[in-house]
Automatic annotation (TrEMBL):
Family annotation (InterPro entries): Epimerase_deHydtase, NAD(P)-bd_dom_sf
Segments forming domain NAD-dependent epimerase/dehydratase: 3-224
N-terminal signal peptide: none
Organism whose genome encodes this protein: Streptomyces kebangsaanensis
PANTHER family linked: DTDP-D-GLUCOSE 4,6-DEHYDRATASE-RELATED
Record-annotated membrane-spanning stretches: none
Name of the molecule in the record: NAD-dependent epimerase/dehydratase family protein
UniProt family annotation: Belongs to the NAD(P)-dependent epimerase/dehydratase family.
Length: 307
């Protein structure tokens, strides 16, 4: 089975690629815009015709799109998160119409949740900012493409290798820098919001199941932890694991995002039915792996990705 992974150098992409390479009889090809990407492809600016030529040369049985950006201005977000999936679908219809497409979406597409509830795939989508809006546009492009495609709507990924652009990775980096200094101060924003955290290795496992599942899949499947966790509790767990002896100063005046989206929680029942997938790692296990992966000393590339 020939599987092409776009965006393989990113946080999710690295774990997904490692998991797919562990599949029996799988040949994993990679594509992206960075040097050494394998198949050169830039979803933000390549015309569909050029991308179709490269897809035809790869002849994939399945394509996994991990390409995406979480920050930047609205134009940058739209180029990768909205235009990218649309161009990919157009190229696939021309070059590999029988290939299965697995696209990574985001729970941010739902927007604010109702406290105490879990969002199913049929819930209304009302993203609260440009990131969620552009990810939703990408999802619409995929689900309307007519391809054998599924969007995995991912919660807040956490685990080994989490980047500093996200809260768990940023807190971990701050704690490593602070060390045991009792006078250290971490100045953080509002930590009152609830988020649905899912281990990045479990996300990779869901992708592998979606790639290899027989027959058509539902157009959208939630991939999350299935539990709403107060962000403050996640920070408390990390500080305890780090043996942090300093002080945390929390700005409780509230960030714009926390005010707009105070609750996120995904119902993952449909993924269990369609893929036989459920999250297998607890948040404690994810945070332990995240902390261990940042220990000083050399680590092999992809270390901690796991099966």
């Amino acid at each position: 089975m020939r599987i092409l992974v776009l965006g393989f150098t990113g946080y999710l992409g690295q774990h997904v690629t490692a998991r797919l390479r562990a599949l029996p009889d799988a040949r994993v090809l990679t594509a992206g815009r960075s040097p050494g990407a394998g198949l050169g492809a830039d979803l933000a600016c390549d015309p569909p015709e050029r991308l179709a030529e490269r897809l035809a040369s790869a002849a994939p049985d399945a394509v996994v799109n991990c390409a995406g950006v979480t920050g930047g201005d609205a134009v940058a977000l739209a180029e990768v998160n909205a235009r990218g999936p649309a161009v990919l679908c157009a190229a696939l219809r021309e070059a590999a119409p029988a290939a299965r497409l697995v696209h990574l979406g985001s729970a941010a597409e739902y927007g604010p949740g109702r406290p105490g509830t879990k969002a199913t795939e049929s819930a209304a989508t009302c993203p609260a900012g440009p990131y969620g809006a552009t990810k939703l546009a990408g999802t619409v492009a995929v689900t309307a493409s007519g391809l054998d495609a599924v969007v995995l709507r991912v919660g807040n990924p956490v685990g080994p290798g989490a980047p500093a652009t996200g809260l768990p990775g940023r807190i971990t980096a701050l704690l490593r820098a602070a060390g045991p200094d009792p006078d250290a101060v971490l100045r953080l924003g509002d930590l009152s919001a609830h988020r649905d955290f899912v281990d990045v290795r479990d996300v990779a496992g869901a992708v592998a199941l979606a790639v290899t599942a027989g027959g058509p899949l539902p157009p959208v499947l939630n991939i999350g932890g299935g539990t709403a966790v107060r962000v403050r509790d996640l920070v408390r767990e990390l500080t305890g694991r780090a043996g942090f002896r300093g002080r945390i100063e929390e700005d409780r005046s509230g960030s714009a995002r926390s005010a707009r989206v105070s609750w996120q929680c995904s119902d993952v029942t449909a993924a269990a039915h369609a893929l036989g997938w459920r999250p297998s790692r607890t948040l404690d296990e994810s945070l332990a792996a995240l902390w261990a992966a940042t220990e000083p000393g050399p680590r092999a590339p992809g270390d901690g990705a796991g099966p």
